[in-house]
């Protein structure tokens, strides 16, 4: 440690203004500040400073995502082998049980997910580094969190080149153009997802992407899925309830069935307990509510995420789902309100996406409105528009744009309160 | 009518190195200095030359833009050096102290018996006016305005701050005289705010001619800005004068005895001061600090601060006490790299003090700590929200106000309450800021813009 410190101390002056390698300062700053908190001392203002810095804050968010990541890796492996068990019952029949074949499933999951993480971080950090270099400073920490979020909201089979393009788009257009870390208007990970959703919809939605290896199985089985297998997710099935051909886990149902019967079939295929634990297909990190809540617990305990946003997001989703129950025009609206909170990306969005401090509302009261409307909007998009089975991404992006408006009204309230205070004084 | 307020927001930073409640005489300083930088926005016009003799209480310089505001010498001696910096700006006016004391003497007068104008002109002519600061802007008060009230904080809640009950004990008579003089300057009341926790000294409790209020809570409860916000908030166009308790005694003494007594009781604090040296020293305004801190420091790599660790000014070890300061803090310089796994951002962090719950140290907030001057990170854009609101007990949105200042939006600044604040009120916001933004500096820039455009 002392030797390393001496090395850094000797290198420091060479990179400062007037030093030999002045131009490489951004590169030096990136590497040295990763290893060492710099020796900068306070120059103006307060002589002492809090021990926290942005790296610590970001790091805590990454740690909070680890349970969801680990579960997602296993889940990816499981649904891959579950599908294989239809194609190859002798070899993989037992693997349709959730806990059988642990080692194989983990290995498969890692091999699927790790490359996505590498591409996401690689492309994102490289682009941010270049922008930082041009601006004369080292790499800032913003992408540490986004780089982990992007893989967690992708379907496991997403082509790596798509991840790269989406990350590049999100970082450049979503962030760097506005000035880098702390300046973006929209959530970066969701921008990447939205880009892929609209540019390559077949790779992002439908029923061939959620279980890893579905397209391979279809190719091997003569163009169709084996009997009994399906690539559906809970949200996809729910969306079908609104139309003429409702389906549940691949089984076609009659449109004349009553809502209650449809819902019964649905709950049979997507047991609430399974949904909470995460044993359903979906994007890599979004399925396990328990893993997400573990992360939420860490974020709330350390004060990194705003409890106002998380709580109001869940409350808003629940409230609007109850509203849908009241209206009850079709089977989707009749789905019990709490179901919405445990399927799809709702919990993940509430804890990791909506809470991004840069893009959320920045006033304390504003956060309550922001979360509430965000959760509610997610439910509305899901239920009222079957073309978008998942509404969380769009709802959060929309609220990102609206957050300054919410803040504006909170600020106005503060201003009006001040004016009143002086009038009556 | 006395009011009491309980604050919910704020932060007490417990540092090592509190001063023992013992008063000792410091060695007579051989050199004192008046620093124009202590007075924000002041351009001094010095009327004495290097080598000229000066008496205690004699005018040394005045405000170029307000000739009535005079600054006097705290000691008898000779102008030894007028130190200039860039663009010939005056940094220090050093006065070497003579062996014998000779003071400017005027007739003592009871301030209650003379008019406002006479009180003002006496204070202006004899160097007492600089003790009076104004809000908004937090600089020397403009003599041409009449404040709606005057506020004095009876306690200081900053880290390691001196105990004013101890300092002012026994000085009731002069304190009251000073209050009587100040009462003349306003049509409203002179407000003294006491610490709601615990009893205050009689000189505060028994003060007459004043309004006594109580405030309790964490720092910045002791800041006069917090008290004004809760008891008599300032609107555009209104003024409030503020003073330190010791300065009130100096004013009172002048009216009672006719001489400028520049003596000060100063607390020497900080983790880098020997425990035996952490006391209250009787010294003089502007004294060179070697008479107080020489031989008392535990190591060489330190920062000496005239004032407290949040708002004070760094000075050399042989630098000079600030005009308004009754407090010296000595803390270690943190100019060493910290390895990320053992002392940096990835470390478990048992030695890193933070008010955020990201380090285990938040579980022991009352443990006294040795904090150094390391920035603990680098400056970034605003990312984290909600942290400043926790330490600012004002009905003000701190981040929005700072952003308005950064983009020079004067209307927004006015609407968001810039007339109510001073940089020292935002010192804690600067302390907790994850993005290490120089907030106090920004606030000062904003106030300068407001002064120029709106006042």
UniProtKB/TrEMBL annotation, chain A:
Gene that specifies this protein: nqrB
Transmembrane segment boundaries: 57-74, 106-131, 138-154, 185-203, 275-302, 309-331, 337-355, 391-411
Membership in a protein family: Belongs to the NqrB/RnfD family.
Cofactor(s) in the UniProt record: FMN
Quaternary assembly: Composed of six subunits; NqrA, NqrB, NqrC, NqrD, NqrE and NqrF.
Cellular component terms per the entry's GO annotation: plasma membrane
Leading EC class: translocase
Entry EC number(s): 7.2.1.1
InterPro entries: NqrB, NqrB/RnfD
Function noted in UniProt: NQR complex catalyzes the reduction of ubiquinone-1 to ubiquinol by two successive reactions, coupled with the transport of Na(+) ions from the cytoplasm to the periplasm. NqrA to NqrE are probably involved in the second step, the conversion of ubisemiquinone to ubiquinol.
The protein's name in its UniProt record: Na(+)-translocating NADH-quinone reductase subunit B
Entry-linked Pfam families: NQR2_RnfD_RnfE
GO process annotations (BP): respiratory electron transport chain; sodium ion transport; transmembrane transport
Keywords: Cell inner membrane, Cell membrane, Flavoprotein, FMN, Ion transport, Membrane, NAD, Phosphoprotein, Sodium, Sodium transport, Translocase, Transmembrane, Transmembrane helix, Transport, Ubiquinone
Alphabetized GO MF terms: FMN binding; oxidoreductase activity, acting on NAD(P)H, quinone or similar compound as acceptor
Lineage, top ranks: Bacteria, Pseudomonadati, Bacteroidota, Flavobacteriia, Flavobacteriales
Naturally occurring in which organism (per UniProt): Brumimicrobium glaciale
């Amino acid at each position: 440690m002392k030797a390393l410190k001496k090395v850094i101390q000797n290198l420091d002056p060479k990179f400062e203004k007037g030093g030999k390698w002045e131009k490489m300062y951004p590169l030096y700053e990136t590497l040295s500040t990763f290893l060492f908190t710099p020796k900068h001392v306070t120059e103006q203002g307060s002589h002492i400073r809090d021990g926290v810095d942005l790296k610590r804050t970001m790091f805590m968010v990454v740690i909070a995502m680890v349970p969801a990541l680990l579960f997602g890796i296993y889940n990816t492996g499981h649904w891959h082998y579950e599908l294989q068990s239809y194609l190859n019952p002798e070899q993989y029949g037992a693997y349709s049980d959730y806990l059988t074949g642990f080692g194989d499933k983990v290995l498969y999951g890692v091999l699927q997910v790790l490359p996505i993480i590498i591409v996401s971080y690689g492309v994102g950090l490289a682009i941010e580094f270049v922008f930082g270099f041009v601006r004369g400073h080292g790499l800032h920490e913003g992408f540490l969190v986004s780089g982990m979020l992007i893989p967690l909201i992708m379907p496991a089979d997403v082509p790596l080149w798509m991840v790269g393009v989406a990350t590049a788009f999100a970082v450049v257009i979503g962030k760097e153009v506005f000035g880098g870390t702390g300046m973006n208007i929209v959530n970066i990970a969701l921008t990447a997802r939205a880009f892929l959703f609209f540019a390559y919809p077949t790779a992002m939605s439908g029923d061939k992407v959620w279980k890893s290896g579905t397209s391979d199985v279809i190719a091997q089985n003569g163009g169709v899925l084996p009997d009994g297998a399906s690539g559906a997710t809970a949200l996809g099935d729910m969306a079908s309830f609104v139309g003429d051909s409702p389906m549940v886990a691949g089984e076609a149902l009659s449109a004349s069935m009553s809502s209650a019967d449809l819902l019964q079939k649905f709950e049979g295929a997507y047991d609430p307990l399974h949904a909470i634990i995460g044993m359903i297909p979906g994007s890599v990190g979004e399925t396990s509510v328990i893993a997400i809540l573990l992360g939420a617990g860490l974020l709330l305990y350390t004060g990194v995420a705003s409890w106002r946003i998380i709580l109001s997001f869940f409350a808003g989703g629940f409230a609007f789902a109850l509203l849908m129950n009241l209206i009850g025009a079709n089977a989707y609206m009749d789905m019990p309100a709490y179901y919405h909170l445990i399927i799809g990306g709702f919990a993940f969005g509430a804890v990791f996406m909506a809470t991004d401090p840069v893009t959320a509302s920045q006033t304390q009261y504003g956060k309550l409105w922001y979360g509430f409307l965000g959760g509610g909007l997610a439910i509305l998009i899901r239920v009222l528009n079957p073309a978008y089975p998942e509404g969380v991404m769009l709802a959060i992006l929309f609220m990102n744009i609206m957050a300054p408006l919410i803040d504006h009204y909170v600020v106005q309230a503060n201003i009006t309160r001040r004016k009143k205070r002086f009038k009556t004084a | 009518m006395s009011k009491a307020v309980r604050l919910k927001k704020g932060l007490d930073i417990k540092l090592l190195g509190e001063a023992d409640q013992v008063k000792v005489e410091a060695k007579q300083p051989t050199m004192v200095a008046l620093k124009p930088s202590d007075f924000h926005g002041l351009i001094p016009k010095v009327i004495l030359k290097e080598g000229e003799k000066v008496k205690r209480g004699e005018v040394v310089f005045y405000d170029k833009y307000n000739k009535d505001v005079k600054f006097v010498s705290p000691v008898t001696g000779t102008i030894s050096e007028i130190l200039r910096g860039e663009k010939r700006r005056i940094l220090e006016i050093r006065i070497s102290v003579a062996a014998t004391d000779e003071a400017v003497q005027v007739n003592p007068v009871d301030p209650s018996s003379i008019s406002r104008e006479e009180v003002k002109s006496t204070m202006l002519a004899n160097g007492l006016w600089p003790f009076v600061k104004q809000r908004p802007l937090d600089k020397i008060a403009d003599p041409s305005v009449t404040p709606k009230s005057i506020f004095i904080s009876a306690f200081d809640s900053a880290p390691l701050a001196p105990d004013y009950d101890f300092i002012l004990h026994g000085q009731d008579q002069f304190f009251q005289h000073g209050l009587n003089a100040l009462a003349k300057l306003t049509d409203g009341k002179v407000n003294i705010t006491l610490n709601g926790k615990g009893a205050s000294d009689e000189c505060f409790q028994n003060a007459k001619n004043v309004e006594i209020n109580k405030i309790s809570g964490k720092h910045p409860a002791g800041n006069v800005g917090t008290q004004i916000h809760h008891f008599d908030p300032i609107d555009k166009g209104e003024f409030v004068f503020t003073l330190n308790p010791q300065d009130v005694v100096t004013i009172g003494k002048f009216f009672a005895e006719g001489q400028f007594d520049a003596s000060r009781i100063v607390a020497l604090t900080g983790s880098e001061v020997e425990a035996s040296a952490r006391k209250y020293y009787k010294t003089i305004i502007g004294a060179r600090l070697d008479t107080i801190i020489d031989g008392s420091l535990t190591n060489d790599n330190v920062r000496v601060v005239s004032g407290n660790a949040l708002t004070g000014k760094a000075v050399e070890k042989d630098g000079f006490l600030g005009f308004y300061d009754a407090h010296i803090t000595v803390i270690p310089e943190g100019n060493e790299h910290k390895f990320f796994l053992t002392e940096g951002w990835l470390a478990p962090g048992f030695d890193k003090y933070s008010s955020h719950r990201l380090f285990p140290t938040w579980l022991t907030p009352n443990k006294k700590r040795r904090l150094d001057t390391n920035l603990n990170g680098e400056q970034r854009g605003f990312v984290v929200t909600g942290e400043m609101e926790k330490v600012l007990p004002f009905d003000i949105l701190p981040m929005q106000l700072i952003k308005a200042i950064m983009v020079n939006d004067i209307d927004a600044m006015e609407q968001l309450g810039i007339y109510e604040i001073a940089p020292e009120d935002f010192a804690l916001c600067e302390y907790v800021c994850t993005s290490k933004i120089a907030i106090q500096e920004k606030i000062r820039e904003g106030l300068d813009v407001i002064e120029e455009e709106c006042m």
